[in-house]
Design a protein that fits this description.
Number of strands: 5
Radius of gyration: 20 Å
Strand content: 5-15%
Order of helices and strands: EEEEHHHHHHHEH
Shape: globular
Number of domains: 1
CATH class: Mainly Alpha
Helix content: 55-70%
Number of helices: 8
CATH architecture: Orthogonal Bundle
CATH topology: Triger factor/SurA peptide-binding fold
Structural class: alpha+beta
């Protein structure tokens, strides 16, 4: 991977608000992937709204993790060169699902922090849809899941997880397909991770450590 650490940025890439006694970074270039910029605001939005392939409500990511995942998505979409169209209806449907994860007040507060309308999240969701489709085409279709794997997952993962949340686990017959999808994604995810790293090795990635440090 051609990875360059950026120490200084030109004024075009770094903005400041002046407040008494010091300067505060408002936005900066967090990373650049093959000439395409990922700003600190981009990363903060991805982090604040947990925009990632898996809808995991209990997962909290750091700013650095959100950036690395954003870089992965950008690398895959940029280097694979697949023309994957995402319709407005698809993006809107995913936006509705994302909105349902938060209480109304919290959702509005998160948008207000960034001065965003809901439509401002659509480009991030569209990018994620493209990424998921590219990964799915290469890895999901050939992954096999046995009934014994599904039963083991049900007994060892699903049931304890539901009870820990104070919920009564549904019968295996009702969640069999859901569990199969989870296992398939996990298997495919391991293969995809290796593939993504190989693509990163071919990309020119610049990470601005100073930008991340100022954001802490």
């Amino acid at each position: 991977m051609r990875l360059l650490k950026i120490g200084l940025l030109t004024p075009a890439f770094l903005a400041f608000w002046l407040i008494p006694g010091r300067s505060q970074v408002v936005d900066c270039m967090a990373a650049e992937v093959n000439g395409k910029i990922i700003t600190l605001t981009d990363v903060r939005i991805l982090q604040a709204f947990a925009i990632e392939p898996e809808q995991r409500d209990d997962r909290t990511v750091s700013l650095r993790q959100a950036l690395e995942e954003a870089i992965n998505r950008r690398v895959v979409i940029d280097l694979v060169h697949e023309d994957i169209e995402v319709s407005k209806a698809e993006a809107d449907e995913l936006l509705i699902r994302w909105k349902e994860r938060y209480p109304v007040g919290e959702w509005q507060n998160r948008l207000a922090v960034f001065g965003l309308q809901e439509s401002g999240l659509r480009p991030y969701l569209e990018e994620m849809i493209r990424y998921v489709r590219i990964i799915g085409r290469r890895f999901n279709e050939g992954v096999e899941v046995s009934l014994s794997e599904i039963r083991d997952y049900y007994d060892e993962v699903y049931v304890p997880s539901e009870r820990a949340r104070g919920r009564e686990p549904r019968p295996l017959t009702q969640v069999l397909q859901e569990i199969e999808v989870r296992i398939r994604r996990a298997k495919a995810g391991g293969q995809a991770s290796v593939w993504v790293q190989s693509l990163r090795a071919q990309a020119e990635i610049r990470i601005n450590e100073r930008c991340l440090e100022e954001a802490r």
